[in-house]
Each structure stands twice: as C-alpha cells, then as structure tokens.
Amino acid sequence: MMKYFGSAYKFGSLGGLFCLVSFLFLAWLYGDPTNLNLVFGYIIVPIVIFLAIKYFKDYTNEGMLSFSEGMSVGFVAYMILGIISGLGIWLVLLISDDLFQSILSAKLQILAENKDMIIGQVGEKSFDTTKNSINEMTALDVALNDSLWKIIPGLFFTIIISIILRKTQ
Questions:
Q1: Number of domains in the chain
Q2: Neighbours of 36 (CB within 10 A)
Q3: Which of 47, 101, 114, 125 sees the fewest Cβ atoms within 10 Å?
C-alpha cells in the first residue's frame, strides 16, 4: 500500500491545498464561497486523480497499470484532497466567525428569495425543515459538505481515469 500512497499523497495534498486557497480567495471576493468552491472542486479533482495515476503508472510502476492499481492510487489521492480541503475549511470557519455568518446569511437569503417556488415544489413543511436545518448549520457541516462533494465525484472520476490509463502486459 505504501507504493500507492507514495505516488498519490503529493497530488492529493497539493489538490487539497489548492481547494483551500480557492475557498479563501472566493471568500475574499464573495460572501458565500461554498458553491463556487464546489465548482472549482469539480475541476481540480479529476486533474489531481489523473496526475496521481499517470505519475504512478509512468514513474513507479514502469508504464504498467491495472484497474485495481489505478483505483487504489485514485482513492488515496481524492481522499487526501477531500480531507485536507475539509479540515482547512473547518479551521478557517472556526477562526473567522464573520465568514461563517456571511455564508449562513447568504444561504438564508437565497432560501427566502426562492420561498414561493420551493413551497410550490416540495411544500411548506419541507421549506420549514430546510430553513431550520440552515439555522442549525455549523462550521463542521460546511466543511463536511465540501469534503463529501470532492470525495464522491472522486470515485467516479477514478473509475473512468483508471479505465482510460489501464495498461497491462
């Protein structure tokens, strides 16, 4: 397993740091950086996975790559990326309560602006449940959401990239 970890931790760590920097930069530009940071994550996650698997294939495994090796390297890369990104965002939100309150108020404002449409689609009870959930949201919830939306797509990107880069004897 160390063979896979050694090839993937560099790219996963770098990707996680990029996601954290993206969050900070977007927080500086906008009140709620969470949605745009998710979009950035959809761009960076496949790049990180591709680079990690390609590096493993070319420099560690002598140009060969089985599907399982690609999945292992990709798993390590996207898990590290998601963990670093989530932990970093959580720490930033714990330190900066103003940023967390800005995110919370932006989400409540969007909910209020779309109240009629939401009630028309899912009903008053669901709207109230969503509003209560947002009011009870914590910094950890924001960080976990960010991490999950990097880890879950990472699995699908890893499957596709592992199939594309697979080369056996």
A1: 1
A2: 16
A3: 125
